[in-house]
Design goal:
The structure is a single chain. The chain has 9 helices and 9 strands. It is of the alpha/beta class.
Length: 301
């Protein structure tokens, strides 16, 4: 039961691709929910992470990085990020302290001007720049938009994240506890498992392959007699050449993807796991509405 004066609400993490939104979400929650990669546009859906204390609950939405889309999947990702602004109690706009302000940041601020939601500016990656550089970044933004708070942070090291949590609760309204105290995400296990597999593909492949991949968990069953979680998943790509790269010589690449993913799945779910991976080709799936719906990219959540 939530106590009197209990605070709760929804917080969007928004920003250009690769500014550290997923890393920050994982840092706030205290465990891996969103996949992390040095490649842009890693996040494709809104990843919900739940942070609960005795006095409040904040539900975080890690949105896809806002970028100029080049296919229907890109359109979906940008639309998802922008519509989120009207669904939350607070927006945290992340920028990268190591990069100059760009057109993407201006575009995000233009979208933010259309909503009444309070907005924080989070200057991320301050562990990678001097204090002077961080202050320059603050000066370059504070006159462009009426940010309620401007907070330098490091999502990677956790610097200033405790302060960020406190400030967030200052701005959330009184409300109910939406999720049980021990629940950290509202996504089903299949979704999280598929994301962990996709993360390994992102880590191990280059060029066009990471963006051409979708992962579908077709079967997930705990077999009591063997005390083993059995998972059958399919990695979809757009071309035969990508399939060959993902499988690798004598299956070495696919085995490595499976090994790394299985370790993370076992750590997350606390169960011995048998992971079976297949690679299939669906040509140009990122531009096919039916395939996007089949893979879970829909506007109706």
């Amino acid at each position: 039961m939530a106590q009197a004066n209990y605070k709760s609400g929804f917080v969007a993490l928004i920003g250009r691709p690769n500014v550290g939104k997923s890393t920050l979400l994982n840092q706030i929650i205290g465990q891996k929910l969103a996949i992390m990669s040095d490649k842009p546009q890693t996040t494709r859906n809104k990843i919900r992470g739940v942070y609960t204390t005795e006095t409040g609950q904040a539900v975080f939405l890690d949105t896809p990085g806002i970028h100029k889309p080049h296919h229907k999947l890109g359109d979906y990702m940008v639309r998802t990020a922008i519509t989120t602004l009207n669904e939350v109690d607070l927006v945290c706009m992340l920028i990268d302290a190591t990069e100059e302000k760009g057109p993407g940041d201006q575009f995000i601020m233009e979208q933010l001007r259309k909503v009444d939601t309070p907005v924080f500016l989070l200057i991320n990656k301050i562990d990678a720049v001097s204090r002077e550089r961080a202050l320059e970044r603050i000066a370059g933004y504070k006159d462009d938009f009426p940010f309620r708070e401007i907070i330098p942070i490091s999502a990677l090291t956790g610097e200033n994240v405790d302060r960020l949590r406190s400030l967030i609760f200052n701005y959330l309204p009184e409300g109910p506890q939406y999720y049980p105290a021990d629940q950290v995400t509202d996504h089903p296990e299949r979704f999280v498992v598929a994301e962990l597999i996709r993360e390994k593909v992102l880590h191990l492949t280059r060029e066009e392959i990471p963006h051409s991949v979708a992962v579908v968990v077709e079967q997930m069953q705990y077999r009591e007699e063997k005390e083993l979680l059995y998972i059958h998943a399919v990695i979809y790509v757009e071309r035969d050449s990508q399939k060959a790269i993902l499988i690798g010589k004598r299956g070495t690449m696919l085995k490595e993807i499976g090994k790394r993913a299985r370790e993370d799945i076992e750590h997350l779910l606390g169960s011995r796991t048998y992971l079976e991976l297949w690679v299939k080709v669906k040509e140009d799936w990122r531009n096919r509405e039916l395939m996007l719906r089949n893979f879970g990219f829909t506007d109706n959540e």
